[in-house]
Amino acid sequence: TQELLQNSEKLTLVGQLAAGIAHEIRNPLTALKGFLQLMQKNEQHKQEYYSIMSSELTRIEMIVSELLVLAKPQTRYFQLRDVAPLIRQVVTLLDTEAIMKKVQIVTKFEQSLPMIRCDENQLKQAFINFLKNGIESMPNGGEMIIEVRKSADEVEICFIDQGCGIPAEMISRLGEPFFTTKESGTGLGMMVSNKIIQNHQGTIQFISKYGEGTTVIVALPACYQPEEPDQELRN
Ligand code: ADP
Ligand code: MG
Asked: In a mutational test of the pocket of ligand 1, which residue from 180, 195, 215, 217 has the highest number of ligand atoms less than 8 Å from its CB?
């Protein structure tokens, strides 16, 4: 019965996700079709139509590329890594966006941090999602702190923003497919990040005060045996 129950729950989730994807992709597709027809009839506004169509296509592209993370093959390579350089690379990737939004990214690394085992690209994707949400929560700019510290047998990565915050009743909806409060959000970032951190046997905690800011704490198992060879994990 337990197994059956789990299977039927899985089906519901897959069904939910499929319905969500279909809906989210159908909207921009409908728009694209409409503008194609308009262009056929009306030569004058071609330029305008092109730019709307292009942004609709970008939207489909964004949704598909976020979903691809979930569809990655089952075999993942976990390697020993220092968290600090991973964070530095992620910060470099989002530097321009932060500057444009008047957000200053500050990193704080505790001394002699233990290493972690990770799929580097997946983990970076999750960090990018947390950092991006932090930046996007501060429309008038501010400070975005990324603090990395050790605690017991874990490495904690804290993303601390001074943004709009998340109302208490919304916290449980984070990670729900397509849940977004942004005009051009996909509502997929947290779902994908949940999955990635779960793959790493880690946990995510959201602490937020509406109107004051949000702290996201990602805890990952520390790895104290650097002599162990890289491992290939299957599940
Ligand atoms: P998206 O960013 O495309 O909206 P996400 O899954 O990344 O999708 O986030 C879902 C929602 O969670 C966001 O729309 C926002 O309302 C809320 N959220 C997530 N992180 C933060 C944050 N740091 N500050 C404020 N709101 C946040
Ligand atoms: Mg996001």
From this structure: 180
Give the ligand whose atoms come closest to the C-alpha of residue 134. Answer: 1
CA–centroid distance, 44 to ligand 2, in Å, is 37
User: Greater confidence, 120 or 156?
Assistant: 156
Site to probe by mutation for ligand 1, drawn from 131, 133, 212 as the one with most ligand atoms within 8 Å of Cβ, is: 133
Q: 73-111 burial by CB neighbour count: b if 16+ within 10 A, else e?
A: eeebebebbebeebbeebbeebeeebeebebebeeeeee
Closest ligand to C-alpha of residue 188 is: 1
Q: What is the ipTM of this complex?
A: 0.99
Listing DSSP states for 149-199 in one string gives EEETTEEEEEEE--SS---HHHHTTTTSTT---STT--S-HHHHHHHHHHH
| 119, 84 contact by CB (below 8 A) | no
d(CA 160, CA 58) in angstroms, rounded, equals 29
Sequence-ordered list of residues with C-beta below 8 angstroms from that of 127, at least 6 positions apart, any chain: 86, 87, 90, 157, 218
Task: Give per-residue pLDDT as tens, 90-128.
Answer: 999 999 999 999 999 999 999 999 999 999 988 999 999
Average pLDDT of the residues of the chain: 87
Nearest atom in ligand 1 to the alpha carbon of residue 181 is 14
The number of beta carbons lying within 10 Å of the beta carbon of residue 159 is: 23
